[in-house]
Amino acid sequence: MRLGGHLTSGTRSGQEREDHAAADRAGDRAAMNQGMQVLSYLISGVLCYGLLGWLGDHLLGTGFLLPVGIVAGAGLGIYVIIRRFGRAEESTTTTETTKGTM
User: Of 5, 13, 74, 95, which has fewest CB within 10 angstroms of its CB?
Assistant: First the structure.
C-alpha cells in the first residue's frame, strides 16, 4: 500500500527499529549502572570497616576486630543497598497503585 509516496506495511520502519534498539541500550546501561552501584556499596562497606577493624587490632593489640569489621561492613553494605534500592521499587509500585485508583 502506498500513502503519500511512502510504501507502508504492517512491519516497523527502520527508524522505529533504531528507536526501539536505542531504548533497549539505554535500559541496559541503566541496569548496569545500578548493578555497579550495588557492587560498590558492598565492596566499600567491607573495605572501610575492615580497615577500621585492622586499625583497631593494630592499636589495641587484638586479633578479632578485623573479621568483625569485615562482617559488619558487609552487613551494613547490604543494609544500605536494601534501603537505597528497595525504596525505588516501593515508590514505583505506590505510584502505579495510586494511578490505578483515580
Answer: 5
Whose cell is 502506498? That residue is 2
Q: Which residue range is the domain that position 97 belongs to? A: 37-102
Cell of 93: 509500585
User: How many domains, the chain?
Assistant: 1
22 inside domain = no
Q: What is the pLDDT of residues 8-66, one digit of tens each?
A: 555 567 778 877 777 788 888 988 999 999 999 999 999 999 999 999 999 999 999 99
Contact 88, 82 (CB under 8 A): no
Strand partners, 6: 3
Would you give the DSSP letter of residue 4? T
- The C-alpha cell that represents 20 in the structure block: 526501539
Assess contact for 84 and 40: CB atoms under 8 A. no
